[in-house]
Structures are given as structure tokens and as C-alpha cells.
Amino acid sequence: MATQIEPTTQEPRSRTGRSLTATRPLMGWRTVDILTIAFLGAALGVAFWGWGVFYNGPITALKIGYAPLMGLFSGPWFLAGVVGGLVVRRPGAALFCEVVAALVSMLPGTEWGATVLISGVLQGLGAELVFAIFGYKVFSAGVAALAGALSAPLQWAFEVMSLPAGGGGWYAEWVLRDKVVYLGALVVSGAVLAGIVGWLLVRALARAGALSAFPPGQEHRESHAV
Amino acid sequence: MLRDITLVLEPGERVLLVGPSGSGKSTLLRAIAGLLETADAGDLTGSVAVDGVAPGSRPGAVGLVLQEPGAGVVAASVGRDVAFGPENVGMPPAAITRVVTTALTTVGLGDLALDTPTSALSGGQTQRLALAGTLALDPSVVLLDEPTAMLDPESAQEVRDAVAALTSRPGAPTVVVVEHVLGPWVDLVERLVVLSDDGRVVADGPVRATLEAERERLLAMGVWVPGEGPPEPVAVDPALVTPRTARTAPALMAAPLVVERTTRLLDGGRRTRRAAELTAGLEAAPGSLTALVGPSGSGKSTVLHALAGFLTPTTPDAVRVTPPDAGPPTSPGELDAPDLARTVAWVPQWSSSTIVAGTVLDEVLATSRALREGRSHNVEIGTDRAQALLAALGLEHLERADPRHLSGGEQRRLAVAAALHHGPAVLLADEPTVGQDRRTWAALVGLVAAYRAAGGAVVAATHDAHVVDRATVVHHLSPPSQAPEVPSPGIPLVARCGPLALLGGALLAVPAGVLSPHWSVSLVVLATQLVLAVVGLWAPGPGALARVRGTALRMLPGLVAALSVGWSTWFLAGRDLDPALTVALRVLVIVLPAAVLIPWIDPDRLGDHLAQRLRLPDRPVVATAAALQRVQSFGQIWSELSRARRVRGLGVSWRRPRTVVAHLGALTMGLLVRTLRAAAELAVAMDARGFATAWSRSWWLPAPWRWRDTLLVLLSAVPLAVALLAPVVGTASD
């Protein structure tokens, strides 16, 4: 049979409201959703690796002083979860994006070996939890900051845990006060450098017309259409 | 975009679809493929039926080949790429092998080995690969979206030959081609459909009769009608694009040169290949146009890179430029960004990478501003001239638009205007006329003619015969001869293991490190790991040194981390060496196996194994594998963006931190925008091959778990066992 193309008429849809959600069903991932998360994760993974070099170079100077403040510079690693969640707005997006980024940043060889992959899961879960609490309906700067902040605690626990029989994470031997300061630094850094920066980044990407297939792109169009 | 389109395409019909730029041709193709809402925004009304049902009903019923070669490449090898569609519809592996071979033979790629890397293909081969990928799903309709626009004449002919071979078979699919250069396609199609500016069908009929009847309308639309010579270039006032400094001698001279490209291999070795060869000297004399021609892969773009100083030829002083302030000739790589911008301008093939500003007008003015010309009393003149330049190129109505929203053809014209506004001595242009219709071509060529008349010199890499006709000198480049391959180094034991075993081995190091209670134990664990690393990386033959070097290099960040973690613990935990040594060695225990094992993981095989062995969901796994194999290209995009900023006078100075931040920010945004665009394009290509509905995929290649995988995991568990047992043994012997 033949290929036929016919016009029909239909009222264009219009929407109002604050955050736009992803198309229903929420778990109905489109191909472009999956690919965008994977590609964003890979690009941010390359950036993670670059940040790691910077972190190990100039910022290491801080360790000579008061090491827990290094946490203030850990935020960029939580970025993939926040950005992935803000762009695609589906359950699992934040976790998936952060894990792909971790996988990619592990490939060239980093100072953390395979723990990067574990960290990716722990950080992604934190961000994912925040988006889930808000029912994947609210994607404001505040929620983004919260997602960035909550990327930190699980990661922190992994780094400072100390086992009764000896052994533990990187910073197992620190005293409790330093560990708590470190958590505070991580949370602040996550809220600002991952949350707010991630939110601004997504807005800039929408303005550049790179998110036309996603809710942030639609929000940008609607706010500029009227 | 499109309005009231009604079309009926008969089975086996071959249709050529033409229309002015922006008339919605690509949109119509995506509508026919049922992919309009895959990655685009907008409101869709109407319906498309293929064989009486919606186009998505049978996966792959409508095949789509995109304009940019490589945009739709899914996998790292030829065989895997063609197998993608059949896998999506759950075809059994044995049948897939048959289908893949047949499809590749039909498009003339039958003599390629199935494991040929897709990155090693030429542009024409890549387009034919995309065609084979659609044929593997036995499509009713094949849509070709300007499939040869970015190819040299020979490669374009290869693609057309493949289409001809496809349509001459019995039961051939309907073929719809979008093109604006009609000549080469007229003999291949039987029907011509013409769209108007506002997206309506204005003519539809047998190709030759319609061409005859609609000739004037098509010419007015700017379509390249066969038998019609190039249009007369538009006259442009040379005052708009006069070089800042009048010259009599060439501002750029190049001796014959060779550019080599060295890639670092994952195993720590290096491979050096000749990327381009310029066999005769080149002089960019005032008023001249030098054309670089040759098939794709002959290194035309690479030669332009060398002329702009982005790449250093094997003889470093082969390229000499004379900056405007009459300094001595120097190599372009040694100039700072402003001096480079005053001397040469560059229009790359991906003209979107040169975008540095938020509006079209600011884009044109950016370099002039950076060179501090627009600061004093002549601000007005600069702006007026920029507006006149935009008008000359038909972009005046877009003055306030965001340049990133323009079409590819518009971006290319904008890039030329932005390259010339500040009056550089030489313009280096990479395929400047690709994607232009007759009208915009005439404007662009007119502008370049004005620049030459005003004393500018142009060096252009081009496939466009009409541009070559205007050249004062033509350099024919051919693909450089390659030195014979060095014998490949022996395959170490780890390289024979599967990706899951490698990943598992690296992960087993984490508990080994975490559970080591004391540095004395960690030391034993680390010694065990070192012995295993030597065994795993050993192989007969050469290459051992490279592997050791590569592993050591990857361990470097780990060593730094061990030192800094150890220091902080010493400093904060009572200035005691004991815990400091413990955490430092813990870091090394965790990092070493990853440095040894991870580099040998192949992304495609990782995908096979994650889906088949671990039963992870197919679609995210395929997407991740596709993203992983493009990671390398992110590095290339990054350096291209960085070069584009430099040649536009936007340099980085470490003394001014603001420029560093602006630079990093711009590059990150640029990389992300390009990445997102690539993802959207690939989504369209993948959905056209049945990925949207791939709920029960099959996998063409098996993911076997072999005895050596078990061995690797067992051996990787030895350090963990040591970490657990050493304290017990230690206590017992006390």
C-alpha cells in the first residue's frame, strides 16, 4: 500500500503553571530521554575528570591547612545528578546520569579507582531522593539546591566510616569534629556548586535552544512566547 | 512550519523533494518517518500512514538517512551498527548475520570486514553504512535528507550508486530524497515535489516535465536546477570588508608540509599517522583565492588547521605569517590571540563552534570589540558596517536573534561575516558554500569577491566546482601515504578477559582496601596486587614498556591522593605516622587494580555483557555504550571550540582570571550544547531503526563468560583474602 500524508485540524495545546513535568507516563522514557541522560553523563564525566586534576593540583594546598574544608570543592561531582534530574524529570534520571558520569570519569584513571562507581551510585541516590520526595513535579532552584545538598550525606558516610576491626574509608582516622565539619562543607558545596550552578546551567542550556525536547526548553519557550 | 500537505507516494516510487531553505523539507521527512515528536518541539496536526498504518507500527518500515555523516552511527564497528535495527526487533543472531551481510553488499560495502571500526570510514562510506542500517529492517520507504550535501563529488557518487543499486531491485522500497542540488539526482528519480517558502506543495509531477514547467519558480527559490550555470555573485561594497592593513606581500606563506597526528592508545602506547600532506608551497597573496581540493580524508581541514597554527607541522617553521604591525614573519602558533585574529580568520566546517555571542549582531562585532577597535569614537561605524554585512548576506532580519538558533546555512554565512568584520589579512574557510542555495551562494561568493578586491587573501577547502573555478591557485590534496603499521604488541592476559570480569576485579579492590586494618597488612596486600599486575600485563613480544608506562601514568593521580590523604590524617589525627600510613596505603590498594584493569574494557562489549549477563534493561545499556564510544570526540569538540575562540581574538591570560573563567564557561556550554544536539540527532536515527519499541531486543553478539574470566575474578579476590586473613594469622602467631 501507499504512504499517505493528510492534514487534520486540532487545537494547539496550551499549558500554564510553574514547573512543567515530563510527558505521562513518567516511567515512559523516550529514546531522546535515555540518550540525553547518557550523553550528558558522559560529557560531565569528562568534566569531572578535568575537575579532579584541578582538585588534586591547586586545591590540594588546602589539605596542608585544614583538610575538611576540601569538601567545599566537592560540589561539581554532584552536578550530573542534579542536571540529569532537572532536564529529563523522570524517575531514575538523576541516578542514571550520575552513574554514567562516574563510569566515564573512571576510565582515564583517577585517584579513586573503582570507588568512583560506588560514589556515583551514592551521590545519584541522594539527588534522586529529593526529586522523588517532590513527586517529580517541582524543579525550582530550591529543589535543585536540596538535591545537590542531599547528594552529599551517603558519600560522606562512605568516606568517613570506620570499621570496628580497623579499616574504613579515606578519612576513617579523623576525629568526629573534623568529620562533622567535612559533612557541612560537602552539603554547602553540593547545594551551591551542584544545585544552584546546575539549575543555572540547565536554564542557560534551555536559552541556547538545546533542550527543546524537554520540559525546561518548553518552559523557556512559553515564558518568551507571551 | 508545514501547512496542508497531502501526498500519496506509491510503492517503489522514487521522489525528489525540493524547496527553499526553511520550507520544512526535513520536517516533512521526519513526519513521514513518524519521528516528529522524537526530539523536536511544536504542534502536530494531521496523520501519516505507511501501508495503511501509522509509520511507527512496524519498526523500521520507514528508514531515514541524515545529512551529517556519522550523526546516526550507533556502534563502534560496521557489523554492530547494521545489526542495531534487527536487534531492536528481536531477530535471532544467526538471521542477523545474514541480514547484515546482505545489506552491506547492497550498498557496496560488502568487502569491509564486519569488525571494521566505524570511525575509520570515509564520509561516503558512513552514509552508505547508514543506508545499509535502514535496509536491514526491510523498509517500505527510505528517506534521504540531503545525504550528499557534506560529501566530496566522488563520495557523493558512491552514495548515489548505492541508491541506484537499491532501487533497481524487484520489490524496492519507495525512496524520497531531499536535495537542493538537483542535477545528479534527476536520472535516479521519477517524480518531483516542490514545496513553497511557507511549506505548501506547489508542484508535483514527473521529474523532467515538472523541471521544465517550474524552472523559473525553482530558480527564484534558489534551487540548483540542472543545466543552469552558477548565479552571478551579488555586488558587495569592498569597503565593508577591507583588511585593516594594506599589503603588497603575502601575509601567510607555507612551505610544503606534512602534519602528523599522534593518538595515545589506551594501553599506554602511541600511534602516529600522517594526517595531511601539502606537496607544493602556498602563498596567500593579497586578492588571491587558493582552493584546496581532494577527496574526504585527504586532509584539507588539517592543512587549514596547520595554516592557522592550531597544529604544528613536522617542520615547525613551514608556515610563516606576518602580523599587521609589521613584525617579522613568525609561525602562527606563536602569536597571541589578538595578533592571530588580526592576521588570519577561520571559518570551520562546524560553523556553530565559532559562536561566541548572544545575538547575531554581537557575534559579528565580537572580534572587533576584543581587539578594542569598537571602544573609541568609531563605535558607530563598526555597528553600521556589521549591519551592512548582515544585509549583504540576507541575515539583516536576524540581527537580534540568538545565533545558536539559526539554521546550518545561516550560521555558516554569519561565521563568514564575523570572520571578516575586523579586517584580517587572510581568510581560511572550510567548505564555506555547503548548504547554500543559489541566492545565498551568490551573496556569499559576492562578499568573498569584495574582500579579495579590497586586498584580502582567501584559502578555502572546498568541493564546490564553481568556487574552484574562481580560484587563482588550486592545490590537489590526496590522502597521505601511511608508513607501514608497526607490529602490534603482544596481547596481555587481562586483554583476553571480558568487561564484567575486569570491572569486578577493579571493584574487589574496594573491600580489600577498606578492610585492611593496618598499614602492615596493606603492604602485604599491595605486594600481592603488584605481583598479579605483572602477571596480568605480561605478554610475549614488544609493548611491555608502553603498558608499564601507561599503568604508571594512570597511577599518578592515585599517588597524589595517597600523599594528600596521608598528610591530612597525620595533621588532624594526632601527628601520628601510623594511621597516616594506613590510609595512604589504603588508597593505593584501591587504585592499583583499577589502573591495571579498567583500560581494557571495551564499551560495546560492556554493553553486550551488562544486558545479557547482568540482565540490566536493554535501552539504557545501549544508550550508555553509544555515549561511551563518543567520549573521545568530546575532547576534539573541546579543542575545536577553544581554537575558534583564540582565532577570534578571545584569548586566555592567566594574569586575568576573568578571561579564564569566561573561557572555561564558554567551552563547557559549547560542549554541552553540541552533546545535547548529538543526542537528539542520534535519537531520531535510532528511533527510525526501531529503538523506540525495542522492548525485547536480541543481541547479535554473545556475551560469553569464560574460564579466564573466573580466573581473573578469583585472582582479584586474593588481595581481599590476604586483607581478611593477615590480621588473623598475625594474632595467632603473636
Could you say which overall geometry of chain B the principal axes of the C-alpha atoms support?
globular
Distance between the termini of chain A: 44 Å
Low-confidence stretches of chain B: none
Number of strands of chain B: 18
Percent of sequence in beta strands of chain B:
5-15%
Tell me the fraction of residues in β-strands of chain A, as a range: under 5%
Largest interface: A-B, 81 and 104 residues
Overall geometry of chain A: elongated
Secondary structure tally, helices of chain B: 24
Counting DSSP E segments of at least 2 residues, the number of strands of chain A comes to 1
Largest sheet of chain A: none
Q: What is the terminal separation of chain B in angstroms? A: 84 Å
Describe the structure.
The complex is a heterodimer of chains A (226) and B (734). Chain A is mostly helical. Chain A starts with a strand and ends with a helix. Chain A is built from 9 helices and 1 strand. Chain B is α/β, with parallel strands linked by helices and 734 residues long. Helices cover 46% and strands 12% of the residues of chain B. Chain B has 24 helices and 18 strands. Chain B has a 6-stranded mixed β-sheet with strand order 4-5-6-2-7-8, with helices on both faces. In chain B, strand 5 (141-145), helix 6 and strand 6 form a beta-alpha-beta unit. In chain B, helix 11 packs parallel to helix 13 (408-420). Chain B is globular. Chain B starts with 6 loop residues before the first strand and ends with a helix. The relative contact order of chain B is 0.12. Chains A and B meet through strand 1, helix 1, helix 4, helix 5 and helix 8 of A and strand 1, helix 1, strand 3, helix 16 and helix 18 of B. Strand 1 of chain A pairs antiparallel with strand 3 (47-50) of chain B.
